[in-house]
Amino acid sequence: MPMPSDAVEIMEPPGPLRADEIAEAMDAHVQHVVQSSLFLRAETLRKLLIYLWDHRTEEISEYAVATEALGRRADFDPKTDASARVQISRLRRKLKDFYETEGIGDAFRLHIPMGTHVLMIVEGSIPSTSLMLLEGEPELPFTRLNETRFLRQKRLVVGLAVMCTLLLIVVSLLAWNLYKARTLPPRSVAMPTSFWTAFVGVNN
What we know:
58% of the residues lie in helices and 4% in strands. By secondary structure, the protein is mainly α.
């Protein structure tokens, strides 16, 4: 039966995106970020962002970031060289600037949590208060600071354990001496021998 000319065709709403479609949309968003004017003027941060995105599913070290993404030499030492942490911090601020200007209405948002070099992607509709909490956390320089805090806490725990052990030993000794003083019979005074008795009697 033909539809009347004035009939309105009802369109079904689109179904949810497939996993591959979401992945393609995320990749397209990353390309959109790195091709933006902010990142085209910052080649080092641009390369770093691409590297973190390509290795987002891997456990990468600070050494790998420095030597593979930033071009540092093989003898790079993260304990004495903070360049990788500095560039990560700059990238974090650059992403924040991007989403406050060119990417303010984007469907996705790239984010690097404080104290890490892990690139995360979240929906652009995330509440602004949550983003402020994420971006306002205190800066933590990777695992170096975390290891330092762990060692300090470990030393503190060991020190407290030693002090408690010494205190327990002292208290135990005092308790044992007090117990002996209360339970042991008093010492008997030795009587003078007959020789000394005669001597004392003569003197008296």
